[in-house]
Amino acid sequence: MSQQVLDIQQKSSIVSSDAKKSIKRKSNKFRVGIQIFFFILIALISINHTLSEKGITIPFLSSASLHAICPFGGVVSMYKLVTTGTFVQKIHESSFVLMTIMFIAAIGFGPLFCGWVCPFGSFQEWIGGIGRKVFKKKYNHFISYKFDTYLRYLRYVVLFWVIYITATSGKLLFSDVDPYYALFNFWSGEVAIQAFIMLMVIIIASLFVERPWCKYLCPYGAVLGIANLFRIFKIKRNASTCISCSACDRACPMNIRVSSVKAVRNHQCISCMQCTSETACPISDTVQMSLKGDK
Q1: In a 10 Å sphere around its CB, with 0-12 CB exposed, 13-18 middle and 19+ buried, how is residue 20 labelled?
Q2: For the purposes of burial, counting CB atoms within 10 Å of the CB of 231, is it exposed (0-12), middle (13-18) or buried (19 or more)?
Q3: Which of 181, 218, 172 minimizes the C-alpha distance to 80?
Q4: What whole-number distance in Å separates Cα of residue 25 and Cα of residue 253?
Q5: How far apart are CA 191 and CA 172, in angstroms?
Q6: What is the DSSP pairing of strand 234-237 with strand 287-290?
Q7: Which of 61, 64, 131 is nearest to 91 (CA)?
Q8: Exposure of 53 by Cβ count < 10 A (0-12 exposed, 13-18 middle, 19+ buried)?
Q9: Are 76 and 174 in contact (CB under 8 A)?
Q10: How far is CA 147 from the centre of its chain?
Q11: What mean pLDDT is predicted for residues 61-87?
Q12: What confidence tens digit (pLDDT) does each residue in 37-47 have?
């Protein structure tokens, strides 16, 4: 028996069955810090936009509308821009700039926007912390894996629906049901009742399922998720050092079975890095983002 196999067996014995159950995700303070920063930034910009309409502004802070700083606005405006040379109502050039930046980042590292930047994704994650404390191991596992797999394609249906209604109407009608818009504009009086209802549904769902909007309904997540199929840097598992403890599976907020693949190509991956050796995996350099080949 090779020395490498003996070393792996020794490591496996250290992580006993009881220890496996008690493995907790190591804190990723850097990621949390970035999430908090963007959440506060977007909230302040949205508040500043409302104040600017009354002649008041917060110094050194943009007063752009939420639509102007949303990269998905560039996606839904493509058809109108190509056919008429104009933007969809409420969409600005900044949306196209942000869209381009996010696409480039996704091709390189996957949907970093979803896992690190998007304030609504972070909001769901924080609400989910309550559900995790209440339901313990049952949290995020109320829906069977098989049924959950099919439900995840709903967001592509939403994506095509949003693109269609935007292209045919020339207006950003999606904001009428967008919970993200409702969360950061609930004080403005511009939010449709449908968006408030959707926001409440997502908040309640987040107590049972981690990131329900991201998993099942987010049209922008659907767009960026496609990049996981051909991204340059992939999250990979080193089978030769893996001890099959499934810590990476339990850590993944999107319920991806990382322990069963060599490289994560799942369209649901949000590049949050919660499954990696730096955060969840107990064995160094076993699960990590890498440029190396899959084999």
Answers
A1: middle
A2: buried
A3: 172
A4: 11
A5: 13
A6: antiparallel
A7: 64
A8: exposed
A9: yes
A10: 20
A11: 71
A12: 999 999 999 99
Whether the model clears a pTM of 0.70, i.e. scores above it, the answer is: yes
Reading the block at residue 26, the tokens are 């190591």
* Per-residue tokens: 245: 């403890």
Structure tokens at 183: 């969360």
Pick from 195, 172, 201: nearest CA to 183: 195
Task: Provide the token pair at 155.
Answer: 């967001």
CA distances from 267 to 11, 158, 183, 215, 273 (A): 32, 15, 26, 10, 15
Cα distance between residue 12 and residue 3, in whole Å: 14
d(CA 219, CA 211): 14
Instruction: Report yes or no: 198 and 259 within 8 Å, Cβ to Cβ.
Output: no
Residue with the larger pLDDT of the pair 177 and 16: 177
Query: For residue 7, what are its two tokens?
Result: 């070393």
Place of tokens 């069963």: 260
Cα–Cα dist 25/194, whole Å = 36
The answer, yes or no, to whether residue 171 has pLDDT greater than 70, is: yes
